[in-house]
Design a protein that fits this description.
Blueprint (H helix, E strand, L loop, with lengths): L2 E5 L6 H12 L3 E3 H5 E2 L3 E2 L2 H12 L4 E5 L1 H7 L7
Parallel strand pairs: 1-5, 2-5
Antiparallel strand pairs: 3-4
Length: 81
């Protein structure tokens, strides 16, 4: 397995699961909420967030962790490999 998306609501345990699965599969883990929220809880502009997601999914190996809220707040479609 080279590309994984963990999607779920806040508080569901996604981050813990993602860290463990990423370690098991030796995949780099990115928590998209950490990308989306800038200092002071300022949301990243939609186009910039979509561009960052495209860069992340361009890699050969990754595990992305996100809430549905982060994706829809951005106005961008889900990442595609």
């Amino acid at each position: 397995m080279r590309r994984v998306v963990v999607l779920g609501c806040g508080g569901a345990g996604k981050s813990t699961f993602s860290r463990r699965l990423g370690a098991l599969l030796e995949l780099p883990v990115t928590h998209l909420d950490h990308v989306y929220w800038q200092p002071g809880w300022v949301p990243m502009p939609a186009r910039e967030f979509a561009a960052r997601q495209r860069v992340l999914v361009a890699g050969e190996r990754w595990l992305l962790d996100e809430t549905t809220a982060a994706r829809w707040r951005s106005g961008s479609p889900p990442p595609t490999p």
